[in-house]
Amino acid sequence: MTENRQLTPYDHIGEEAAIRSLVERFYFYMDTLPEAAGIRAMHAADLSSAHDKLFKFLSGWLGGPDLFVQEYGHPRLRQRHFPFAIDAAARDQWMLCMTKALDEVSMAANFRENLSQALQQLATHMINQDE
């Protein structure tokens, strides 16, 4: 890191190792929590591709290497999620897993809260089904 570069959320979270840990814990919860069964059912039996894509997306989204864009192009998250029926319940299940995962990654409390709020907004933006 150069002296003149401002720190990004990627730096604050702990860079690659922390994002890998966050994604690992997120999918652990998705795969094991009964309350996340609905969101889990939207994924393939093998979560490795989803795991890889989320890691690459979060890396760039948080200001680190733009791995997702380099491999897949612009994220177009909403468009990429259109094939899945995402309602508020699915969003809440996704956030349950993410919140639990965030709680396991060491970071300042105010940064965790800001990151959680940003992810909540992002997850809400993915909703494509009425209740």
Structure description:
The chain is mostly helical and about 130 residues long. The chain has a single domain (about 15-125), classed as Orthogonal Bundle (Globin-like), CATH 1.10.490. It contains 8 helices and no strands. It has helices spanning about 10-15, 15-30, 35-40, 50-60, 65-70, 75-80, 90-105, 110-125. Helix 2 (about 15-30) packs across helix 4 (about 50-60) and helix 2 packs across helix 7 (about 90-105). The longest helix has 18 residues, at about 15-30. The N and C termini lie far apart (about 45 Å). The model has no long low-confidence stretch (mean pLDDT about 95).
CATH architecture field: Orthogonal Bundle
Main β sheet profile: none
Class per helix and strand makeup: mainly alpha
Number of helices: 8
Estimated helix fraction: 55-70%
Unreliable residue stretches: none
Could you tell me the radius of gyration in angstroms?
Answer: 15 Å
What distance separates the N and C termini?
Answer: 46 Å
Give the domain tally.
1
What is the arithmetic mean of pLDDT?
A: 93
CATH topology: Globin-like
Strand content: under 5%
Shape: globular
User: Helices and strands, in N-to-C order?
Assistant: HHHHHHHH
- Would you count the extended β strands for me? 0
CATH superfamily: Globins
Write down the CATH class. Mainly Alpha
Topology diagram in text:
Elements: H1 9-13, H2 15-32, H3 37-41, H4 48-61, H5 67-72, H6 77-81, H7 88-103, H8 109-125
Helix pairs in contact: 2-4, 2-7, 7-8
Short description:
This protein is mainly alpha-helical.
Any key phrases for this structure?
131 residues; mainly alpha; Globin-like; Globin; transport; Globin-like_sf; oxygen binding
